[in-house]
Amino acid sequence: MSNYMPTLKQLQYLVALKEHGHFGKAADSCYVTQSTLSAGIRELESLIGVTLVERTRRVVRFTALGDRIVEKAHRVLREAEELAAIAEASGKPLTGELRMSVIPTIAPFLLPRLLPRLRADRPELKLYLREETTQAAIDSLRHGNVDCVLMALPYPTGELDSEILFQDPLYVAFPRDDPTNPPDWIKPDMIDENKLLLLEDGHCLKDHALAACNRPDLRASATMMGTSLHTLIQMVDNGLGVTMLPEMALAGGILEHTNITARPLQSDHAWRDIALVWRKNSPREKEFHLLAEILRDAADHPAIRANAA
Predict the structure, then answer these.
(1) Which of 9, 19, 278 is nearest to 142 (CA)?
(2) 136 and 262 share a domain?
(3) Does a structural domain hold residue 214?
(4) Which residues form a coiled coil (predicted)?
(5) Cys staple from 197: which of 160, 219, 241, 299, with CB 3.0 to 4.6 Å?
(6) CATH number reported for the structural domain that contains residue 62 in this entry
(7) In which element (H, E) is residue 271 found?
(8) Kindly report the CA angle at 67 between 12 and 53, in degrees rounded to 5?
(9) What pTM was estimated for this model as a whole?
(10) How many helices (H) and strands (E) are present in the chain, helices listed first?
(11) How far apart are CA 303 and CA 251, in angstroms?
(12) What's the pLDDT tens digit per position in 53-81?
């Protein structure tokens, strides 16, 4: 057995450097100086007798062995955090630190209703949030950078556990002076494929909207250029096309001060499932189910058909 065992701190420095590809940014993420992080990695390399990182003035490049050790380090750090979580979970639930990723098409609309309730009901909970696209959030969860993810399904999550919180219906948004303005709802075949504006790749709402319409010509012809729902709203408001919005965005007031109307999409699966996702066999599973219930209650809002019209 080796006389030297890497410290968790050294592994944390190595993982951070791999994630950020830059010594300064990695040091900032670990709340240490760049020299401290660099020295920690050099000590790790010296004591195990191998080079993990090739350093030049402009590039940080991991060796093949360095990449393998980073993968192992992710698991070691995650297991170490779960050891602490076991003890924490044995006390009062939803106390201490909890790190959650939230996708951009949920964060600005649900969190304003969620956070005040959490502060009131769970004052000992320190909830740290990071906004990420779906795949980035799943990667953060698997690597142990976050404890859970608030996201929309369907989406391939692999070996992860989840609880569906509620269905979030989809709407079609278009300028109020559109001559094809329908009275109550919009069917997929009523959408002009040359006018549909959607979020760019990386946002699962794009795939949910296209799947709900089940029209291959929309997938082929839709313009996918929006970096956020607010960007899409600005384009629609300027007469550049139509888009699809989740009901929670309408409830959050995204159409206020615009000349845009929204109608429900009428199709066999005109919604997305909002879910809380976590690692399988997590020691905090009971807490996540409790958090899911709080999220579900926080999302309960009056019908917004009138506001959407």
Answers:
(1) 278
(2) no
(3) yes
(4) none
(5) 241
(6) 1.10.10.10
(7) strand 271-279
(8) 75
(9) 0.72
(10) 12, 11
(11) 8
(12) 988 777 888 988 888 888 888 888 877 77
